[in-house]
Amino acid sequence: MFGMQKFSFDKKSEQQVEAEKPLETEVRLEIFRHSKKENDPNRPNSELLLTPEGRELAHEKGLKMNPDINVAIAGASPMDRTAETAMLIMGANEDKIGVDDSLEEMDKKISEEIKVGKKIYRDERLAFNLDGPIQAEGMAAFKAGEYMKWLANESDKQAILKGDTVSTTYLRQAGNVAELVDKHSKIGNNFNRLATDKKKNDEEFPNYLERYLATHQSVAEPFLAEVLKEQNGAAARDAFISDLKNGWAETEGLHIRIVNKGAEQTIKLSYQDKGEQKEIEVSKDTVDKIIKRRAIFEKAVAAAERTDKSIETSFSR
User: Fold this and answer.
1) What is the pTM of this model?
2) What's the CA dihedral at 105, 109, 112, 114 to 10 degrees?
């Protein structure tokens, strides 16, 4: 009779199993309209800053978001009222940042705490442009409280007809914000790899980043509208736009969570719609399609502009 052989099976400890799981990391991306601005007809719109009420509103919004300035960066359009809003929200938990501080004072106080780089940057994709030939129609729609409907249904067609290469349009804004989401999606992938390496070396390292991007009314809304159209159909987009009038109120916008579990990534977008909090998961394919649609639109506008110029040249001879 054969003797009984003893076999030993190596069982992984709970710590080993946990260590082998893909690390979960997150990029929290907030894109929101600036807070309440001054109303001074004697000054250019680009120079208008936040009112005292607007500063308080931005601070209160920041407290609700509960930002961690150690892992946060603010973004803004070239207009200072967006930078004021982004900094007040990002710095809401910081005692050293006062609600009445100027943009320069906030920037100086934060810069004293960090050794390299800055905590705020400017991005043209968060801006708007009213300099092109279609904007007279846009302003008329704005005064009538129907700017979002005009933007979604007419602005792109009018830009192509008139060869308008500069004005804010629906697909231009949707594409701009889609590029920002795509940028932070790539940041999310790179950040997860970095955090995973740090974890392997038993180094302390955060597992999330925060980005606070302040923009203007009707800049971020077209991106959400195109996401709804792509994933839920045109009726969903139209229903979202129908009650928006000219766009979101001050400090309202998009909350985007870009979550990585190793190489696997999900993008979840939440927003307020008719007083109800809603969430939708956005596929990377949807983001790419919106960027491509904007590129196709720009080619059509450029072609129309060249045609208009050739007609003008022939008449001037």
Assistant:
1) 0.90
2) -110
